[in-house]
Amino acid sequence: MTLTVWQTSSYCSEGNACLGVAGGQGGTVRLRESEAPGTVLAVKRTALHGLIRALKAGGAGIRP
């Protein structure tokens, strides 16, 4: 069994609404939100990088 090591920003208080990030298998990144830690989303690193880049650019190219 592999232990998942979650990282959370130091800006996150002990409360809710914090995003946890961990490495995953096959080039993925695992994400979870502190209010629902049992729900984990696995995304490809390239997809997450593209989302972050688009958000930094003001949301250009992001469709609902």
Overview of the structural elements:
With 64 residues, this protein is α+β, with helices and mostly antiparallel strands. The chain contains one helix and four strands, in the order ββββα. The protein has one helix at 45-56, and strands at 7-8, 19-23, 28-33, 36-44. Strands 1-2-3-4 form a four-stranded antiparallel beta sheet. It is globular and about 40 Å long. The model has no long low-confidence stretch (mean pLDDT 85).
The main β sheet shows up as:
4 strands, antiparallel
Mean pLDDT: 85
What is the strand tally? Answer: 4
Shape call: globular
Q: Provide a count of the helices.
A: 1
Unreliable residue runs: none
Distance between the termini: 37 Å
Strand content: 25-35%
Give the ordered list of helices and strands. Answer: EEEEH
Strand order of the largest sheet: 1-2-3-4
Rg over C-alpha atoms, rounded to the nearest angstrom: 13 Å
**Assembly status:** single chain
Assign a percent range to the helix content. Answer: 10-25%
Broad structural category: alpha+beta
